[in-house]
Amino acid sequence: MRPSFGSLDYNVLSNFCEKLFLAADKNDRNEVITKKTLQMFFTSKIFYEILNHFKNLSTEENKKYVYAKYKTIYLKKCFDNNITPEPGSPKNEDAVSEVDNKIDDKDKEEEEQITNDKYEHYEENNNDYYKGREKIGTQSKGTEDSVDFNLSLKHAQYAVNALIFEDRDTAKRELKLSLSYLE
């Protein structure tokens, strides 16, 4: 059984997610689109995933979650290709729903993969990997251009997967490692 927080704690986490999302959205709509804005959308997406683990997201929270996923992908592509991102909602609303469908398909594939893997070997097989990644991560943090979004996304997903298996220590470690790649 999952450890349960009080309902007040869910509301606190929900309010935190909303504030983080609204701050990112405000930066986006005021045309202050930087890597920090991308990080804020990405982080709000992660926290909505964590909140979804403990309670079902409301319709409004789910819309913000999907929008944060969309903006994370969109802004990352813009920064990677040196394209100036357009502020605000996408002109084509189908783009957000298309991203949502792709993400749902990806989530289903990942869930199947998790159930096929044996969790007992998860910790053993990855300990050396984490030590190596932490060493590489500390070496590459010298410049702001060394932000590694792919590794950050990967470790954020590991954190969510650890929560599914009710492993708080691994989830915390992975979330910290994920955020360290964004600094």
Protein described:
With 183 residues, the protein is mainly alpha-helical. The chain folds into two domains: 1-108, Vacuolar protein sorting-associated protein vta1 (Serine Threonine Protein Phosphatase 5, Tetratricopeptide repeat, Alpha Horseshoe); 131-183, Single alpha-helices involved in coiled-coils or other helix-helix interfaces, CATH 1.20.5. It has helices at residues 7-29, 35-54, 59-80, 94-116, 120-139, 149-164, 168-180. α2 packs parallel to α6 (149-164). The radius of gyration is 17 Å and the shape is globular.
Radius of gyration: 17 Å
Large-scale geometry: globular
Structural class computed from helices and strand pairing = mainly alpha
Q: Return the CATH class of the largest domain.
A: Mainly Alpha
Oligomer state of the chains in this structure? single chain
Please tell me the overall pLDDT. 73
The end-to-end span amounts to 34 Å
Weakly predicted, low-confidence segments: 113-125, 140-144
Helical region count? 7
How many discrete domains?
2
According to CATH, the fold-level topology of the largest domain is: Serine Threonine Protein Phosphatase 5, Tetratricopeptide repeat
CATH superfamily of the largest domain: Vacuolar protein sorting-associated protein vta1
What are the secondary-structure elements, in order, as H or E? HHHHHHH
| Biggest sheet layout | none
Q: Could you tell me the strand content as a percent range?
A: under 5%
The total of beta strands comes to 0
Keywords: Cytoplasm, Endosome, Membrane, Protein transport, Transport
Biased composition (Basic and acidic residues): 91-106
Region (Disordered): 85-116
Organism: Plasmodium falciparum MaliPS096_E11
